[in-house]
Amino acid sequence: MSTMTRLAKVLRRTTLQAVPTVIGIVILNFLLLQLAPGDAADVLAGESGSATMETVAALRARFGLDQPVLVQLIAYLDNLAHFSLGFSPRYNLPVSDIIAQRLPGTVILMLTALALALAFGITLGTVMATYAGRWPDRLISVGITLFYSIPGFWIGLMLILLFSVKLGWLPSGGSGTIGTTVSGFALVIDRARYMVLPALSLALFYIAIYSRLTRAAMLDAQTQDYVRTAAAKGLSPFAITFGHVLRNALLPVTTVAGMHLGGLLGGAVVVETVYSWPGLGRLAFEAVMSRDFSVLLGILLLSSLLVIIANVTVDLVQAWLDPRIETR
Amino acid sequence: MATLLDIQGLTISFPNATPVKDLSFQVAEAETLAIVGESGSGKSLTALALMRLLPKTADITDGSIRFAGEDLVNIPEPAMRERRGRDIAMIFQEPMTSLNPVLTIGRQIVEVLRLHRGLTRAQARREARDLLDLVRIPDPDRCLDDYPHRLSGGMRQRVMIAIAVACRPKLLIADEPTTALDVTIQAQVLELLDRLRRELSLALLLITHDLGVVGQWADRVVVMYAGRKVEEAPPEPLFNDPLHPYTQGLLAASPRLHDDLHYRDSRLSEIPGSISSAVKEKGCPFVPRCPQRRDVCRTVFPDTTMAGLGRSVACHAVTPTIATGPSLHDAAVRL
Ligand SMILES: Nc1ncnc2c1ncn2[C@@H]1O[C@H](COP(=O)(O)OP(=O)(O)OP(=O)(O)O)[C@@H](O)[C@H]1O
Ligand code: SF4
Ligand SMILES: [Mg+2]
Predict the structure, then answer these.
(1) How far B263 CA lies from chain A's nearest CA (Å)?
(2) DSSP label at A243?
(3) What is this model's ipTM?
(4) Do B84 and A233 touch (CB under 8 A)?
(5) Topology of A101-289 in CATH?
(6) Which residues contact residue A145 at a Cβ distance below 8 angstroms, ignoring those fewer than 6 apart?
């Protein structure tokens, strides 16, 4: 069986499994949010300051918030079936429009952070495994323990203090220079400068996780019989590490990396707030504060889709790395 | 026949143990030398020392290994790397785990061909196909692109052999190559090894604890016990007239030795006692299990002495009567 047909089979199986998962997530989210005290009408009324019982009731009626929960749920599911995420009372806009504005920012941030985390994590892990027990291993270990144990927002603030306030090298927040007229490569550079600190604050925790995993997986792979076979062929330590050990060691790393992807989205909420990054994380935060449940539900649905896509990707990468994985 | 491999006084130590002590033997070009001995007697460590692939904590603390006139103990690691897989090759006991599970068979053969013979990708692939043919793998073209998990244990061991002989080595070390295989497959793999030995005129160092294998395929046998060579002889005299009490015990423990079918089932560990009771230094390590022990055995390890043509033995019970010939070292030169 060729690699391609193998991958196609894995893709079909995982996609089919995703559909019921998503429906379950939507219903569960909807019911959970009903448990939170207050609704959008309360918040709007509170903000205006002069609302009467009648105006609040009118607002509720307008957004259907006075209906029984079950009716609201069915209405929401009906919307979804027509590919609509509903309407936000607060922004006075369709939810899909609001989310579409913010989605690219978050996706770019997450992907950059993930790429950084994998690149640094696997490199550091390989170095640590190669020098296991000697000083490079110990030194990196200490650094990694710090990344692992310090909360992301604090690292974010410290990075701002160092690189923005003290050194003045990088901007402290936002996603691009306001009113700039540059384009092409200069624009990319401008955006990248704004990206570095948030992506790094988000990535550090995962660098810690991936490098430890890589180290452990490589040390384990090094003791395998096929490594001895490779040495008996006369291969150099370098060729053995990169030709035989690393690829086997990446198998457990990709599994755990996939499981942590959901956490990356959670971390984005904090980092986007610290760096005033215009992404979904901050939108979610605002939606919670204003009880704008239709926006929140939309974001939660999208997040679950992102996590599912991530899992499918992990399955595909695994199937590509490991020929023993086939459809069951 | 010229001596290819000459090991003298080889001693291998871990920080707290010395599992191979003062081991000497020779392998001539294109012959099969079998090393037998029960589990833990130091067979694998000896083989790994020849490849200079000992575990990190182990060290060759004494002795010399001369291979084709060159001292392998002291040549630098990069030079040793050039010998590995090209002049000396090795196959292992576990065919199921000795191949890399995520690389195709073809790639694992091509790798060694390109490394040592400098072939292009296309040449190496053709050669790999021919090698699979040589080790009698059916449908070699398909096998090239297959992954190890799709092959049976016997087929995988054939692939390992193909990799081992890819660069026409002078010496092939096979560490219990058939122990993990079915009985019927064992015979086929050993036949294959013997055919390759003849066709490629390579010397075979066959490590086993299967006396049947020894009787059928070996030109000479070295019997090891607790890291020492206790007896060396061609298989016929060894089976008909074992001199060392340990060898005698071995043969007694495998009742129908001359019945071919039962050869393969006879395991050396059937002698009462265990090798772990023999770790104490000084004296003969076989003392606790030896029916012929005497006082001197507890304090002095017996010298290795000649006991006829191509035979030697290290035992106080044998020494007084037969130890009149020249020392083993002289005999080895004449061999
Ligand atoms: N990595 C190691 N660390 C410490 N001791 C070891 C190590 N490897 C082997 N030994 C010891 O060295 C001795 C010889 O081991 P070796 O593997 O050479 O035996 P063997 O004759 O090949 O046995 P088997 O038939 O089980 O393969 C054993 O007693 C073992 O305990
Ligand atoms: S030296 Fe002594 S103890 Fe050792 S085998 Fe010979 S008789 Fe037995
Ligand atoms: Mg062994």
Answers:
(1) 29
(2) I
(3) 0.86
(4) yes
(5) MetI-like fold (1.10.3720)
(6) A208
pLDDT digits (tens, 9 = 90+) for A69-126: 788 888 888 888 887 888 887 788 888 888 888 888 888 888 888 889 999 999 999 9
CATH number, position B88: 3.40.50.300
Is residue B126 one of the residues assigned to a domain?
no
Please name the residues between 207 and 236 in chain A that touch chain B, using a CB distance below 8 Å.
224-226, 228-236
Rounded distance, CA A231 to CA A249, Å?
17
Say what the pTM is.
0.81
* Phi, psi for B3 (deg, rounded to 5): -75, 130
| Rounded Cα–Cα distance for residues B22 and B20 (Å) | 7
Assess contact for B286 and B246: CB atoms under 8 A.
yes
Using an 8 Å CB-CB cutoff, list chain A residues near B103: 244, 247
Per DSSP, B302 falls in state P
- Distance, CA of B209 to CA of B225 (rounded, Å): 12
Q: Tell me, yes or no, if A247 comes closer than 8 A to chain B by beta carbon.
A: yes
Contact, A198 vs A275, CB < 8 A?
yes
Q: Which chain A residues have a beta carbon less than 8 Å from that of B160?
A: 229
CB of B182 within 8 A of CB of B96? no
Give the rounded distance of the alpha carbon of B4 from its chain centre. Answer: 15
Its domain, for residue B63, covers: 3-102+147-257+269-334
Q: Terminus-to-terminus CA distance in chain A, angstroms?
A: 14
> Is there a contact between B289 and B247 (Cβ–Cβ < 8 Å)?
no
- How far is Cα A279 from Cα A103, in angstroms, rounded to an integer? 6
